[in-house]
Amino acid sequence: MLSQLFDGANLFVLPFWALMIVLPKWEITRKVISSPLPFITLAGLYIYLLIVAVNPESAAALANPKLADIAHFFADEGAAAVGWVHFLVMDLFVGRYIYLEGQDKGIVTIHSLILGLFFGPIGLLSHLITSAILNRLNNSTPTAEPS
Questions:
Q1: Which residue, 76, 78, 113, 125, is most buried by CB atoms nearer than 10 A?
Q2: Sign of the torsion angle spanned by Cα atoms 118, 120, 121, 127
Q3: Radius of gyration (Cα) for the chain, nearest Å?
Q4: Residue 129 lies inside a defined structural domain of this protein
Q5: How many domains does the chain have?
Q6: Do 9 and 84 contact (CB within 8 A), yes or no?
Protein backbone atom coordinates (compact mmCIF):
# COMPACT_ATOMS: atom_id res chain seq x y z
CA MET A 1 0.00 0.00 0.00
CA LEU A 2 2.85 2.39 0.76
CA SER A 3 4.13 2.05 -2.79
CA GLN A 4 0.69 2.83 -4.24
CA LEU A 5 0.33 5.95 -2.05
CA PHE A 6 3.80 7.07 -3.13
CA ASP A 7 2.94 6.54 -6.81
CA GLY A 8 -0.45 8.20 -6.37
CA ALA A 9 1.10 11.28 -4.76
CA ASN A 10 3.54 11.61 -7.67
CA LEU A 11 0.71 11.41 -10.18
CA PHE A 12 -1.56 13.69 -8.15
CA VAL A 13 0.70 16.76 -8.50
CA LEU A 14 1.35 16.43 -12.25
CA PRO A 15 -1.93 17.96 -13.52
CA PHE A 16 -1.34 21.06 -11.38
CA TRP A 17 2.15 21.52 -12.77
CA ALA A 18 0.86 20.87 -16.30
CA LEU A 19 -1.84 23.53 -15.94
CA MET A 20 0.63 26.14 -14.70
CA ILE A 21 3.20 25.37 -17.40
CA VAL A 22 1.03 24.56 -20.43
CA LEU A 23 -2.12 26.62 -19.84
CA PRO A 24 -1.05 29.53 -17.63
CA LYS A 25 -3.56 32.03 -19.05
CA TRP A 26 -6.58 29.71 -18.84
CA GLU A 27 -9.09 31.01 -16.30
CA ILE A 28 -9.63 27.48 -14.94
CA THR A 29 -5.89 27.18 -14.25
CA ARG A 30 -5.93 30.19 -11.93
CA LYS A 31 -9.04 28.89 -10.12
CA VAL A 32 -7.56 25.42 -9.64
CA ILE A 33 -4.14 26.69 -8.56
CA SER A 34 -5.64 29.26 -6.19
CA SER A 35 -7.56 26.54 -4.38
CA PRO A 36 -6.14 25.14 -1.14
CA LEU A 37 -7.62 21.70 -1.90
CA PRO A 38 -4.50 20.18 -3.51
CA PHE A 39 -2.46 21.20 -0.47
CA ILE A 40 -5.07 19.96 1.98
CA THR A 41 -5.12 16.61 0.17
CA LEU A 42 -1.34 16.28 0.15
CA ALA A 43 -1.05 17.47 3.75
CA GLY A 44 -3.61 14.84 4.73
CA LEU A 45 -1.57 12.16 3.00
CA TYR A 46 1.56 13.49 4.71
CA ILE A 47 -0.08 13.26 8.14
CA TYR A 48 -1.40 9.78 7.39
CA LEU A 49 2.04 8.55 6.30
CA LEU A 50 3.68 10.21 9.26
CA ILE A 51 1.37 8.34 11.64
CA VAL A 52 1.25 4.99 9.84
CA ALA A 53 4.57 4.61 8.06
CA VAL A 54 7.20 6.23 10.27
CA ASN A 55 8.85 4.44 13.17
CA PRO A 56 8.53 6.79 16.18
CA GLU A 57 11.92 5.78 17.56
CA SER A 58 13.76 6.69 14.37
CA ALA A 59 11.72 9.89 14.08
CA ALA A 60 12.96 10.93 17.53
CA ALA A 61 16.41 11.33 15.98
CA LEU A 62 15.03 14.30 14.05
CA ALA A 63 14.72 16.31 17.27
CA ASN A 64 18.49 16.86 17.25
CA PRO A 65 19.41 16.02 13.65
CA LYS A 66 22.82 14.88 12.59
CA LEU A 67 23.55 13.93 8.98
CA ALA A 68 24.11 10.27 9.80
CA ASP A 69 20.81 10.13 11.72
CA ILE A 70 18.93 11.72 8.83
CA ALA A 71 20.50 9.27 6.37
CA HIS A 72 19.51 6.37 8.62
CA PHE A 73 15.97 7.77 9.03
CA PHE A 74 15.40 8.10 5.27
CA ALA A 75 16.77 4.61 4.62
CA ASP A 76 13.36 3.40 5.84
CA GLU A 77 10.72 3.27 3.05
CA GLY A 78 8.04 4.85 5.23
CA ALA A 79 10.27 7.76 6.15
CA ALA A 80 11.35 8.17 2.52
CA ALA A 81 7.68 8.27 1.45
CA VAL A 82 6.91 10.92 4.07
CA GLY A 83 9.95 12.93 2.99
CA TRP A 84 8.99 12.67 -0.67
CA VAL A 85 5.42 13.82 -0.02
CA HIS A 86 6.92 16.71 1.94
CA PHE A 87 8.93 17.64 -1.18
CA LEU A 88 5.84 17.32 -3.38
CA VAL A 89 3.77 19.61 -1.16
CA MET A 90 6.45 22.25 -0.75
CA ASP A 91 7.57 22.24 -4.39
CA LEU A 92 3.96 22.58 -5.55
CA PHE A 93 3.45 25.41 -3.07
CA VAL A 94 6.52 27.18 -4.45
CA GLY A 95 5.23 26.54 -7.98
CA ARG A 96 1.89 28.06 -6.98
CA TYR A 97 3.68 31.14 -5.65
CA ILE A 98 5.72 31.49 -8.85
CA TYR A 99 2.63 31.03 -11.01
CA LEU A 100 0.34 33.43 -9.12
CA GLU A 101 2.97 36.15 -8.79
CA GLY A 102 3.85 35.79 -12.45
CA GLN A 103 0.20 36.12 -13.44
CA ASP A 104 -0.33 39.13 -11.17
CA LYS A 105 2.82 40.96 -12.34
CA GLY A 106 2.85 39.80 -15.96
CA ILE A 107 6.14 37.91 -15.52
CA VAL A 108 7.03 34.98 -17.76
CA THR A 109 7.31 31.97 -15.46
CA ILE A 110 7.55 28.85 -17.62
CA HIS A 111 11.30 28.44 -17.10
CA SER A 112 11.00 28.95 -13.34
CA LEU A 113 8.06 26.54 -13.11
CA ILE A 114 9.92 23.82 -14.99
CA LEU A 115 12.94 24.31 -12.74
CA GLY A 116 10.63 24.32 -9.72
CA LEU A 117 9.02 21.06 -10.78
CA PHE A 118 12.37 19.27 -10.88
CA PHE A 119 14.55 21.35 -8.53
CA GLY A 120 12.17 23.32 -6.23
CA PRO A 121 14.55 25.91 -4.72
CA ILE A 122 16.28 26.55 -8.06
CA GLY A 123 12.89 27.34 -9.60
CA LEU A 124 12.20 29.83 -6.82
CA LEU A 125 15.63 31.41 -7.28
CA SER A 126 15.05 31.60 -11.05
CA HIS A 127 11.74 33.36 -10.47
CA LEU A 128 13.22 35.82 -8.00
CA ILE A 129 16.05 36.66 -10.40
CA THR A 130 13.64 36.98 -13.34
CA SER A 131 11.36 39.24 -11.29
CA ALA A 132 14.28 41.44 -10.20
CA ILE A 133 15.62 41.77 -13.74
CA LEU A 134 12.22 42.61 -15.21
CA ASN A 135 11.49 45.02 -12.38
CA ARG A 136 14.80 46.79 -12.97
CA LEU A 137 14.19 46.95 -16.74
CA ASN A 138 10.68 48.31 -16.25
CA ASN A 139 11.90 50.97 -13.80
CA SER A 140 14.77 52.06 -16.04
CA THR A 141 12.70 52.35 -19.22
CA PRO A 142 12.20 56.07 -19.90
CA THR A 143 8.63 57.14 -20.34
CA ALA A 144 7.79 59.47 -23.18
CA GLU A 145 6.85 62.92 -21.98
CA PRO A 146 3.87 64.58 -23.64
CA SER A 147 4.76 67.36 -26.07
A1: 113
A2: positive
A3: 19
A4: yes
A5: 1
A6: yes
